[in-house]
Amino acid sequence: MGMERDPRRAGHESRGMIHRAADRAPAASGAARPPMSLDELDRWLRAPRQRKPAADGIAMLDGFVAAIVAGPATYEPLGWLCPLLGVTRHAINDGDTEEYAALAAAAQHHNALAVALSEAPGRFAPIFGRDAHGAIDVGPWCRGFHAAIQLNPKFWQKLLPARGLAHRWLIPILAYCTNADGRPVRGAPPHGPLTELAQFDAHRTIPADVAAIREFWAPTRYNLHS
Predict the structure, then answer these.
(1) Which listed residue, of 47, 160, 197, 215, carries a Cα 20 to 30 Å from 28's Cα?
(2) pTM to 2 decimals?
(3) Four-CA torsion 7, 115, 214, 148, nearest 10 degrees
(4) Contacts of 51 (CB under 8 A, 6+ apart)
(5) Range list of β-strands (E), the chain
């Protein structure tokens, strides 16, 4: 996997799009499997396996990938894809496996989000979950986004200071996240009316918030104004 360039700045650093290198032959025992569909990837993530993925379903994976795309830094792809999916780096070398098809699906989804947020941010649509009653459940998506921030919280300091509330774009997301002890994560409002207010309309405000976050970081991450 490698990094493609921002089509608007062909000579500058990548905007974080992942591609499967054409000169690599990943399949060790036959033709490479096609990427899983998102529904297949969701079922695969939920199935019990010895190596547990960080994402518990497609909603959490979508939130994580959205933060990777919209955030302040570009990371080495397999460094976050492998733990997110619960696979080893060797999975990229054998195309005839479910692990390879899952990696290909996640990379393909990353690229789709990168294009959407770059070229049509108004049409960005997070994949939220549903609760047992069929109502929208924003929580898993938000926890995925927060997990991606934790790859290096220092990179997010302009929007997520060490003390006090985070920037308003992050509040609806962090309001759904807690530490292992049940306390709000750094930057989130305390439990109570502020949290309830932040959560109330989160499913409507998050798409525009993520687009704003991407626009905020783009000049420094992609060197768009040089």
Answers:
(1) 47
(2) 0.87
(3) -120
(4) 86, 87, 88
(5) 2-5, 14-19, 129-130, 136-137
